[in-house]
Each structure stands twice: as C-alpha cells, then as structure tokens.
Amino acid sequence: MKSYDVVVIGGGPAGLASALAAERHGAETLIIERENALGGILKQCIHDGFGLVRFKEKLSGPEYAERFTEELEGKKIDVKLLSFVTEIRKNGKFYLSVVSREGIEEIEAKAVVLATGCRERTAKQVSIHGTRPAGVFTAGTAQRYVNIEGFMPTKRCVILGSGDIGLIMARRITLEGGVVLGVYEAKSTPSGLTRNIHQCLYDYDIPLHLSSTVTRVFGEGRLEGVEVAKVDEKMRPLPGTEERIDCDALILSVGLIPENELAEKLSVSSDPRSKGATCDGQMMTDVGGVFTCGNATHVNDLVDYVSESGEIAGKNAALYDGKNAKYAFVRPDDNLLYVVPQRLNLSADNSETVIYFRSKEVRGKSVVTVKADGKTVLQKKYPFLRPPEMERIKADFSSFPLKENSVVEITVEEG
Amino acid sequence: MRELVCIVCPNGCTLSVDEQTLAVTGNKCRKGVDFAVAELTCPTRTICSTVKTVFPEAPVLPVRVSKEIPKDKIFDVMAEINKVILDKRLSRGETVIGNVLGLGADVIATSSVLVKKS
C-alpha cells in the first residue's frame, strides 16, 4: 500500500494551493483528481478577472490555474488523474479506496484535505413544471460545451437565476452570436456580483427581470419555450402574470452547493448556514486530520480566497500532530448568512485568523464587531454589505485568553 | 451626473461622474477615475473567447485580447477570432492574431493545453 503524509482530494484551485503548501511544509503529498487534467472548473472559466487580489493581474481561469500546475512540476508531489475516491476510513491513519483505470487501490495517509469543490443546483432541485425536453442545462454545463467542447448549445435562450456563472454565460453566448432573451431572478436582488451585472448584462443590453421566475417548460424532443411569471415576496408565482417565451434552451444559474459526500462518510459535521463542512482557523474539521478548503467549505466568489484557504489547509495538514483539539466557538448573529471558521483551536496559533463571512441581506453602512468572551477583538466599517459579496477579515486573538468553550461573537450593526 | 459601477476589481464601486467636468466621486482608488473617464469618452473592454483548433484533444483553445479594445469593436474582433482554425500547438501567451483589426491589441492564447503532455 502506498503511503503519504497528506492526500489532497480534488485538483482544482483549492487542491493545487493545498498540495503546494503541504509540500512546502515537508509533507509527502498526493493529489487525486477525477478528471483527466488538473485545474478544476478554472479550465472552462475562460473569462478574465481571476487573480486580482493574489497576483494584481486580471487573468483568465486557465492562466490562473496554469500558474499553479506549472509550480507543481519539479516538486515532489504525486498526481493521480482519472481517479476517484470511493471510501475513506479512519483507523489511526486514513485509508482511502481509489478507483482508476488500474483498478481499485488502497492508499494510506496521515492527513486528508477535502478540496472537492461544489456542485450546481439542477432543474430537479428548483421545481419547474412541464415536459422534460432536451435543452435544459446548468450554466456550468453550457460553459463546458462552449469553452471546452467548442459547440453552441443554444441559439435563443432564457437564463433562470442571476448567479455569476449564469451572467458570464449570458455574455459568452451573446459574443458567439446566440440571443439571450432575458435573465430571470426570483429574488428581488441579483445573486451575482454587481460588476458582472454591468459587464455581462447591461453592456450587451440583456434584460434582467427581478422577482420573476420560470414556471413551466414546453417542448417534446427539444425545448420550444418557457413560461415566466412574476413572483411575490415569498417567491410564489403571481397568477395572471404568466408569459410564454419561445426559445431553444433554458440555462440554470440557481446556486451552488458544497460537495461533501466524503466529509459525510467521515462523520465531519456540516454547517447548515455555509452548507459545507465546519472547520477551525486552520481549516481542520471536527474529525482530527481531515481538512476542508475552497468551495467544499463554502461557496466563494473569488478564486483568490479559494487558493488562500487551500494554503491554510495544506500547511496545517502537513503539520498535523494527531493531538486532540480543544475549541472556542464562533457565533455569528442573525444578520450574517454564515461565518467560516466555526471554531478556534485553542492549541493553534490564532494570531492571524482569517474569517470569511457574508451578510444575510443587502445592508448600507455597517460595523462588523468580533468579540471574544465579550471583549472586542476588532471592528471594521463597511460602506455596504451584500450577500453576493463575501467579506474577509483577519483577527488577532493572541492577546485574548480563549478557554475551552469560549464564545467568539461576530455581530453586524448599523453604522 | 451619471452613475456607473466600476468593473475593474471585485470592490465594484458605485461611481458618480459629472458629464461636463468628468469629476468622479465614489471611487476607492485611482483606477475608478480612469474607468469612469474612459466610460464617458472611449469605453474599452477586454474580451475572452476561444478559437477552433485542428487538434482532437482540444477542439477549442481559450484566447483573450492582450489589452483592452474599444467597446464598439467587440463584435468585429469576435468575427476575426471566429475565422481562426489553429493548426499550430501554441502555448499560453503566444500570439494567435497580431494587432487585430489594427487596434494595437493581439489576440493571445490563455492556455498551454495544446503543449502539455498529459
């Protein structure tokens, strides 16, 4: 049986950064990737805007990914492509069952990093009535068709949901000569980044219909049209507002969900608010030696922070000593959608703890306060907070004596 | 006054520009001023797309323009990009179309997928 210090599952941006960091800290490292190439979703994200935080450059997805895959060359990091982890057991160390073209093999690891990314919500998860014709795609599937396979899945389409991939695809389809008849969003505010609403929709005169949704699809073999309707504040369709639109495709950009099947098998606890695995400031889950990062932890809007969390996870996986951890707990207030991390490990260095959060609602001037057992650790002012835009702060807890079960409160107030 | 959203970085600042004096407010950095002034005088954009190739393992190769081009030339540049059928194994950063339409920007490859041994 092959044995490694750190096995990273997933070769996207989180896994790449994680493996490089683990190797830098002396770990013998393996990346397991199910596709035939490293890079994850970045391979098909050919638009630019990646790396502004990390490299101060506007890179396309492949350019960003290749900076990491090229750094990998010459390093002592093994890579297994076209390989899939079906089981992980913990018995002191970790034992992974890996399926590939060579068959099934067992691999042993001292620590495991789950860099499994996220999945798109599908048509089955957003109840739409009608027939089941061809021509209903998730935005990511449409993106793969256009940018990797090189063919157009639509001539005239409607996009449901205003997530970033949907906005990016609205522009991409328009550039390739397709017509995007409109983007329909059930919520009263867009899900995607404001700059994407502007540069992907408004630049190309693509209408954005808020508080509107697709209620029905038509067509037998191929989609022939969709029915759209206005919705009330509880997102229920309003009778009498239905309208039929003829089109050959419906593209869905209705949210992403962290992929955590392996975490569940390891009995890692998940956070219903972030929808991903819970972790401490070192990105370790509540199962010792299992680390989480990137979109498997929570869905990020910037890859730069995916890489950052991968590096934190990889470094700490390499340094994992098997000791039992004692924790202080992070409690976000109800104005926050979620906060990562959910715990602080008392024996770890918490002097540069990176905290990621999102506001639940669109807010104007706000003050975010981090308190440890009632004492203020830091305060930060924001001109606005919007749910689509993840915020990041760095907190230094070193001068605050945290005890087991101490409470770190994070609150948002007007100001 | 015209309201704009800056698309230069993820901050996405809401900018107000005076159409007469081109005075900008609401920006967190200098780039916001440059963006707002360009929007009112000669708006530019980067475009990213793909070109067809003759190689079965990568039927299309991702490309972008090496510098921003005027917004009203986007579809003209797309037409040029869509004429290309690439038969050379270019790597990332290499030029696919030099000085496209005389705009002073090259169309460059953004992936080395064609030269990678996998």
3D architecture notes:
The complex is a heterodimer of chains A (415) and B (118). Chain A is α/β, with parallel strands linked by helices and 415 residues long. Chain A is 18% helix and 36% strand. Chain A is built from seven helices and 28 strands. Chain A starts with a strand and ends with a strand. The model of chain A has no long low-confidence stretch (mean pLDDT 95). Chain B is of the alpha+beta class and 118 residues long. Chain B contains two helices and ten strands, in the order E-E-E-H-E-E-E-E-H-E-E-E. Chain B has a five-stranded mixed beta sheet with strand order 8-5-6-10-9. Chain B has a three-stranded antiparallel beta sheet with strand order 1-2-3. A two-stranded antiparallel sheet of chain B has the order 4-7. Chain B is elongated and about 50 Å long. Chain B starts with a strand and ends in a 9-residue tail after the last strand. At the A-B interface, strand 4, helix 2, helix 3 and helix 5 of A face strand 5, strand 6 and helix 2 of B.
Low-confidence runs of chain A: none
CATH architecture of the largest domain in chain A: 3-Layer(bba) Sandwich
Please name the CATH architecture of the largest domain in chain B. Answer: Roll
At the first level of CATH, the class of the largest domain in chain B is Alpha Beta
Question: Mean pLDDT of chain A, as a whole number?
Answer: 95
- Give the terminus-to-terminus CA distance of chain A: 59 Å
Helix content of chain B: 10-25%
Beta-strand residue fraction of chain A: 35-45%
Rg of chain B, alpha carbons? 18 Å
Radius of gyration of CA atoms of chain A, rounded to a whole number: 22 Å
Query: Ends of chain B: how far apart?
Result: 54 Å
Strand content of chain B: 25-35%
Strands of chain B, total number: 10
- Which protein chains are joined by the largest interface, and how many residues does each one contribute? A-B, 33 and 30 residues
- Largest sheet report of chain B: 5 strands, mixed
> What does the largest sheet of chain A look like?
7 strands, mixed
